[in-house]
Write a structure and sequence with these properties.
With 107 residues, this protein is mainly α. Helix content is 42%, strand content 6%. The relative contact order is 0.11. The mean pLDDT is 79.
């Protein structure tokens, strides 16, 4: 977006104000996701010798893909029932059959 006049900027803000996440919304999300903080998942085991051969981006892709599949089913892959209260579901996204953002929706 190029330079905007003050009037154009104010109109833009009014049109997009509904997309701004407020403090109350953030507090709700933080409270809902609190059970996930600090939890370790034992769903992938790679020996250190082999892990050294991976590029950081490869590791990130593997873990990201694995977690994308597991996040909506956390209570099935852990021994804790703390995740039963975290209601995350895979989002259909805005691109139909292709992945869209956000990846997950907090119910």
């Amino acid at each position: 977006m190029g330079f905007m006049t003050k009037e154009t900027y104010e109109k833009y803000i009014l049109q997009h104000a509904f997309t701004v996440v407020g403090e109350d919304d953030m507090s709700t999300v933080k409270a809902a996701l609190a059970p996930l903080i600090g939890v370790q998942f034992n769903i992938l085991s790679i020996p250190k010798e082999i892990l050294k051969a991976f590029e950081p981006s490869q590791t990130g892709t593997i873990i990201g893909t694995l977690m994308d599949a597991c996040i909506p089913q956390l209570s099935k892959i852990t021994e804790s029932d703390a995740f039963d209260s975290v209601e995350l579901t895979k989002n259909d996204g805005i691109l139909g059959e292709r992945e869209g953002y956000p990846d997950f929706v907090l119910n």
